[in-house]
Structure to design on (394 residues):
């Protein structure tokens, strides 16, 4: 692992310490400037490290955000996992399964719910999340699948709404339905949003 | 308007004062016992008034809850408005229009968002809301339209998720779409949930 070059005299902080300082600065900058307004260079300057080190630790701005927000999954992973399906007819099933994989696992559900709650009650978090989802999920998905953005959003809306009823409110019978029942219920709806009209 | 009979000596409180006292007691009881556990009789006893007076003011437990939570619309109104459509083929359009009518009006959107935010961050509010929605929206809708509850929930999930993306996160282009574009986008999806498979 590269050791941090802070350009400051005195004790050299260890990699973990430096990583944490970068994340703390990133959280502050993202909250102040939004996802679009904060840059990897700006975060590095704030943390008094070389931008190359931030890149080395996190791969890029998206990776810094995912780590800073303790986001359980990188949207790029979701897009590429859904893109693995061979035919366009199976996009609905692939998206339903990928979404449920993430939500059914408490280790990823808990931080996702935390982010969703913050976005609902804090305007700054809502702005950050909007810009992040736009840049890392909607734009790549639109380009990869050539589906109009509003239709991708309608599909994501279907999934988020069901997640709220199932995991937050616990409304029956959707709260106790099996994963496969949910895939059967939702996949054709998602597919309809993706099919040409 | 009937004057309240509190059965207590001293100054007779006016109707507004009594109404507010009933609502304060109702809020406390609903939070403590949930929607199902609180009764109109229990609320009346807590507020030291005759149950007939609570009935006179609010029509019933559902009405007390709607007023106590400052709910902008009684779910019974939504069910009966959607039920007004002549044919089952038009349920999707009717539900999309009715839902958007409520959300597009800031006077009802603001309190709805407040309830949604509380339900997402407070387990007791989530329980109250779950029981309330179950008793006043899901059960009547299932009986009126003879649609399996899980399908009604999938449709409500579609609408709630889109409301979050449009009104809370402000994700484009769904945030700036016209009401009619949204009806066109969502009505066929809702209808698909309602059609027999």
């Amino acid at each position: 692992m590269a050791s941090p070059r802070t350009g400051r005299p005195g004790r050299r902080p260890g990699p973990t310490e430096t990583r944490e300082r970068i994340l703390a600065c990133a959280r502050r900058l993202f909250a102040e400037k939004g996802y679009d307004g904060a840059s990897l260079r700006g975060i590095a300057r704030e943390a008094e490290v070389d931008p190359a080190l931030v890149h080395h630790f996190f791969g890029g701005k998206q990776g810094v955000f995912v780590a800073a927000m303790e986001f359980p999954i990188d949207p790029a992973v979701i897009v590429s996992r859904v893109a693995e399906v061979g035919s366009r007819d199976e996009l609905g099933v692939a998206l339903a399964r990928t979404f449920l994989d993430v939500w059914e696992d408490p280790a990823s559900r808990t931080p996702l719910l935390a982010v969703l709650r913050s976005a609902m009650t804090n305007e700054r978090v809502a702005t950050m999340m909007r810009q992040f989802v736009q840049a890392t999920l909607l734009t790549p998905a639109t380009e990869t699948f050539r589906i109009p953005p509003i239709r991708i959003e309608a599909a994501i809306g279907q999934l988020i709404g069901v997640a709220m009823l199932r995991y937050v409110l616990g409304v029956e019978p959707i709260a106790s339905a099996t994963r496969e029942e949910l895939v059967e219920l939702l996949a054709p709806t998602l597919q309809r949003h993706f099919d040409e009209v």
About this structure: The domain at 15-68 of chain A is CATH 1.10.10.60 (Arc Repressor Mutant, subunit A). The CA atoms of residues 85 and 94 of chain A lie 7 Å apart. Chain A has a mean pLDDT of 86. DSSP finds ten helices and no strands in chain A.
